[in-house]
Amino acid sequence: MSTGSVYILGVGLTKFNKPSVPCSYTDLALEAGTKALLDAGITYDGVEQGFAGYCYGDSTCGQRAFYQFGMTQIPIVNVNNNCSTGSTALWLARNAVLSGECDVTMAIGFEEMAPGSLRSVWGDRVNPLGRATDMMLETRGVDGTAPGAAQYFGNAATEYGERFGSTEDHLTEIAYTNHLHSAKNPYAQFRAVHSREAIRAAPAIHAGMTKLHCCPTSNGAGAAVLVSEAWLDRHPELANQAVPMLSQAMATDSPRLFSRSAIELAGADMTRRAATMAFRRARIAPEDVGVVELHDCFSANELVMIDALGLCEPGSAHRLVEAGDITFGGRYVINPSGGLISKGHPLGATGLAQCAELVWQLRGWASNRQVPDLHYGLQHNVGLGGCVVVGIYGKPYFSGNIDQDGRDRVGYNPAVECRGITRHDFERVRSRSLFSEYILADAKL
Fold it and tell me: Is the preceding omega at residue 70 within 30 degrees of 0, hence cis?
């Protein structure tokens, strides 16, 4: 395997919207991918492998999405790994570069979701979460009125409180903080700031969590272009925006999943393993991190995963929350994007949206939500069933006096302004030689 580094050269994101807002996954992917290629300063002809992440859609949706940019006959891999799908696509794209197989890869994650809580679409076969749900039934019971995911994570926070002393107030503070952060993110599905009292008074969901403690279902897409160190050496004019992926680790469940612990049932052990590997490979410690994009599908999950990631002493995540160490002015800024709770959670896009936020932060582009004095960022994306990806990003290695960056090519600062794409934008990045206009017949350009 190559010893060279892998860099994020370009990122792109759509606004996350409610499922009731009309859209097509093809248009979402087209927008996010066009923005990522513009940011990267390359055309699709330079992409050697593509990885598409989505959970709700037929096989080969990835080809349908990528073909819009060109039909260059590159390998395209379709990825489905529950809520960690986007980061799994990113993990595969990074590994393809790291292996020396190619120099440039692209990951796109998208989702066109149905309204309401998550549910299986395959009622005629074994549910992959069936045994985990059986364990939840045996240990905590199953609430027939609450969404299953809310029960998994809400029960984990209940156990955390029983063992270490956290309360519902800590969950409310987490939800309050994420809603506060999202007000400055133009891509967020929800940008309203809610008081702590309003969060407590919202409709109850499960285990002390209300509707405002929970992420919504969403439509949206994200994309990233990755390059090798050798490729970047040949294009030094782009070094000022290339964010190094210092490490990435994927883990799945251990037998502790069935240890009759709600915390373990929510994926804590695989998060511990992935975080330990990621920090070791990056050769940094948790206290070196300044910004974190953490998978807060529920406020309960943020509480438990702060601990599992090693961001606090074991059993003291709620103390970190109490001290204000999850927001600006504290030890970490967790989810400056607003997180899943208020930014939204289109499953296939979430990991790539986290990636985009960290890239913008580490480039210093995030303006009114910029975390100061950054050196490292941490990404955490988890899916029940189960899989977790933890990544560590570093600051770009600036090279010489470079007058232009991705903001000039896109035409604005995408970290603080969300715009759609034009036909002119698309024409600048599509394949020059292997492209069919036919596939764009329904595209909104």
Answer: no
